[in-house]
Design a protein that fits this description.
The protein is α/β, with parallel strands linked by helices. The chain is built from four helices and 13 strands.
Length: 176
């Protein structure tokens, strides 16, 4: 239907764990993006049963994933350029590699992982989304994943906690 929003599931740092709560959270999504540290083909296979999956390699991924997955990728989704990479730094202090890639790709949205800290922020006209970690709980960080809703005019991001019985929205952000 023209004008309807595309839904994109966003996950990172699964570290070999497929959380079954992702089944409900990503039901009806058009695409799933995994921002690295997959640590197991079975995670990608289970996500692919829900929607097409695009993933990048993280620092903990080993062969064959480290060979098969790119370090970064750019996807055109709903009229928006989305840059997917594992290590970003922070939106306010990018790594040199992330900064160079952002300059080269000119994305509307940058999705990263690595820190295990979910975050949505708009900076310098770009929506930065880290879905947090959907893997086993580490430290005191919230286990989480995200969903993007994209129309030609806007991108909305929602971060969901995976620590309650059902995924619960804990943060929102948007880009126009």
């Amino acid at each position: 239907m023209p004008g309807s929003a595309l839904q994109v599931g966003v996950v990172s740092d699964t570290h070999g764990l497929f959380d079954r709560k992702l089944i409900d959270l990503f039901a009806g999504t058009d695409l799933i993006l995994h921002a690295g540290d997959v640590c197991g083909q079975s995670v990608l296979d289970q996500l692919a049963a829900l929607a097409p999956v695009r993933a990048v390699c993280g620092n903990c991924d080993v062969a064959p994933l480290s060979v098969d997955l790119p370090r970064w990728r750019t996807e055109e989704v709903g009229g928006h350029r989305i840059l997917l990479l594992h290590e970003l730094g922070k939106p306010e202090r990018l790594t040199a590699a992330a900064s160079a890639r952002i300059d080269a790709e000119q994305p509307d949205v940058v999705i990263s992982g690595h820190s295990h800290q979910g975050r949505i922020v708009v900076r310098d006209g770009i929506l930065f989304l880290n879905p947090g970690s959907a893997g086993r709980k580490r430290f005191r960080l919230l286990r989480s994943a995200a969903v993007l809703s994209l129309t030609q005019q806007e991108v909305k991001a929602t971060l969901f906690s995976l620590e309650s019985e059902k995924p619960t929205a804990v943060a929102h952000g948007s880009w126009r």
